Amino acid sequence: MSLVVNITKKLSGFELKANFKAGNDILGFLGASGSGKSMTLRCIAGIETPDTGKIVLNGRVLFDSENKINIPIRERNVGFLFQNYALFPNMTVEQNIGFGLSKNIPKTQRDNIIKKKIVDFRLSGMQKRYPYQLSGGQQQRVALARALVVDPEIILLDEPFSALDEHLRNNMMTQLKEDLLEFKKTSIFVTHNIEEAYQLCNDIIIIDEGSIDAAGNKDVIFNTPPTLYATKLTGCKNISKAKKIGNSISGNTVIDAIDWGCSITFDYVIEENITDIGIRAHYLELKDDDYDVNTFNCWIVSTGETLFRTKVYLKFSESTANDKDYHILWDISKEEWDLVKTKPLPLKIRINPDKIIQINEK
Amino acid sequence: MSELSPLWISIKTTFAATIIVFFIGITSAWFMASYKGRARGVIDGILTLPMVLPPTVVGFILLLIIGKNFPLGKLLDGFGITIIFTWFATVIAATVVAFPLMYRTCVGAFRQIDINVLNAARTLGASEWRIFWKVAVPLAWPGIAAGTVLSFARALGEFGATMMIAGSIPGITETIPVAIYFAVIAGETGNAFKWVILIFIISLTVMVASDKWAEKQMFLVSSARRK
């Protein structure tokens, strides 16, 4: 079971180039809005037509520009979960779910299939309701049941949570994951939310301006993002231009963090072509002394409070009164902040080289 | 009977025209709502033209098409079929002038449907025909109903084009609007008044009835639509 996509399509502002494979798993498509991720899904479903390329699903050619093959949407056997669920507003839950079933199936059998889906998707008692009488979560389950009733070869999910509030989102994510694991075939999940992608998928593709920026296992992508864009997208707040200064005799490497105005020493040899380094805001460490070579004096520029955490904006040099520029963001819990508050400036902040993301942009 | 004949002719003509317009209007609107080709503007213009042209111009053009001295008319005449100055001509005139109202209203109604809902139906394997009847028409129903009532009213009131291609043959092509005109010309104000009152009653009844009915339909569809 596999999906092979290699297509291009001209969009306003950039060209979409999607080239990837997907197996029997939930594949995450992560990118900013307007990056072309939804367009890729729509091309797979046949709603949009790529300019060139090929789409092959389980050995069946769905689209091939060279051989002029373009299978119509209804023959592709692709399940699509739309952002707004796109339920038929004029039909009841039952009718919505049964819509895709062939007329050739005898009525009793149809009814049984629909009944089973109603039970499977926890919709008992709602058979006769119309979509407007359902909650967001119920609507999504109807949409998923409707898509799965025709036994599609793949499920495509286009930002299914973007219209929901935070609380509902978390509940539904767990449910959706269970339902998708039950499906046991290829699913592609499109989102701009890293949290969702991380929770639902094992493999992730990051797409930027129509091109695949990074692809791989989610833990690899999140721990060692290979590109600058992937680093930013996965939520790294502290990124600096970097330049390798040299290797010391002891096998250390010194990297100049240009934007931060400091140098970081690694106890191993690093590639010559490093262009940027980054460190996540919660990985900064507070020290009592600056004996370690990677501990720097920091001055607080400003702070920002969120519900449970405090963002501390730091500078590696003493700031003048009206200077609101900062070098690095430190994300700590409120309890930690209460302790930090009382310490005299400058703070001794250690940048742990093991936590640094190294980026080699071409 | 003969005294009331304009009433029967008007009713027959209007119903026939409305039924024809209903089907042709919906299907052409469905086609044009999704048509993105280059000729879009031109086709849309042509289909709307009978609404903006003076009815006499529409009548004149219809004469050119089906008149006995012109190719199509001649061809039909060869088969022994005459359209001009028959009851069919009143139906054609009413149909042509009423069509744009149905077409315009329906195009608007179809365009309002969430394209994702139609695409969802496509991914479920439904044929375009099934999508049209089971999804598009029910969702566009308030618009379709409104278009039908407008078309009915327009067909009932048709005068100019009817005069041009059907004339005023009592008992055959003389509809109420035509009868009113000739009654006034002949100075029979009382007679004209009778027809005016009658057409008033018919129009108002249909409008009120369809309004009540549309209200109910609108409730069903819009409540189903509400998110």
- What is the overall number of helices of chain B? 11
Number of helices of chain A: 9
Low-confidence stretches of chain B are none
Oligomer: heterodimer
Shape of chain A: elongated
Main pleated-sheet profile of chain B: none
Please compute the radius of gyration of chain B using only Cα atoms: 20 Å
Beta-strand content estimate of chain A = 25-35%
pLDDT averaged residue by residue of chain A: 87
Q: Greatest interface and its residue counts?
A: A-B, 31 and 23 residues
| Inertia-based shape of chain B | globular
Short overview:
The complex is a heterodimer of chains A (362) and B (227). Chain A has helices at 37-45, 93-98, 107-120, 136-148, 166-183, 194-200, 218-223, 228-233, 334-342, and strands at residues 3-11, 14-22, 26-30, 52-57, 60-64, 69-70, 78-81, 154-158, 186-191, 203-208, 211-217, 238-247, 253-257, 262-266, 276-279, 285-287, 295-305, 309-315, 328-333, 347-350, 357-359.
Describe this entry's structure for a reader.
The complex is a heterodimer of chains A (362) and B (227). Chain A contains nine helices and 21 strands. Chain A is α+β, with helices and mostly antiparallel strands and 362 residues long. In chain A, the strands form four sheets. In chain A, strands 7-8-9-3-10-11 form a six-stranded mixed β-sheet, with helices on both faces. In chain A, strands 2-1-4-5-6 form a five-stranded antiparallel β-sheet, covered by helices on one side. In chain A, β8, α5 (166-183) and β9 (186-191) form a beta-alpha-beta unit. In chain A, α4 (136-148) packs parallel to α5 (166-183). The mean pLDDT of chain A is 87. By secondary structure, chain B is mostly helical. Chain B is built from eleven helices and no strands. Chain B is globular and about 65 Å long. In chain B, 37% of the residues are buried.
